[in-house]
């Protein structure tokens, strides 16, 4: 069986220096696995691309539009900054000379004149990071579809706030999804039970809290006895800057008691 050619990754070239743009475009056109998109204006940010290369002349003027595109993207969209030769390899100094609001859009730098081997290495690294993010995003989509099939109410929390709710949770809590996303689950329960649930969630984030906690939620003005049971799934970042992702299952007390009565 013949091997399929690798998928070409699209690299957007948004540079004021026409010679650098031409040379990079020609090299990428000849390089297996990459396809150049030469941009003359910020309208090109509306196109589909997997990595962008900008220079220090275009980044300040295009930074806002680039940042807006990155916010719209569901996964990591890398940016490589081409530094002029006069920086002498001091990337940090060159970045400090740029406006603060655009520096955060830069994921890596490379200095002119560009060495092909160094450019290939940086592009491969950035694009590989995007591919990993895409794979993770697809895995999360599959995971969410699986959760939708469960009869139990399920919440996913990030940084302590609700990031995802399945249909069973929407039905149990009797709130529309937009009113749940971003809320803290403590707000769903009776005031006297809020300290107990908050304590349990802290234990979960610290890798404990296996026993669950019984509280009453307030749904459409009525109190419903439930039990929260959770598990910590994984960290968002390898450096541990973000809170762990927590999965919460909410069992109605009637269901729990009914299951218990059926035990021999």
UniProtKB/TrEMBL annotation:
It comes from the Archaea. This is PAS domain-containing protein. SMART domains: PAS. The modification 4-aspartylphosphate is found at residue 55. The keyword DNA damage does not apply. Keywords: Phosphoprotein. Residues 139-208 form the PAS domain. NCBIfam families: sensory_box. It comes from Halolamina litorea. SUPFAM superfamilies: CheY-like, PYP-like sensor domain (PAS domain). Residues 10-127 form the Response regulatory domain. Signal peptide: none annotated.
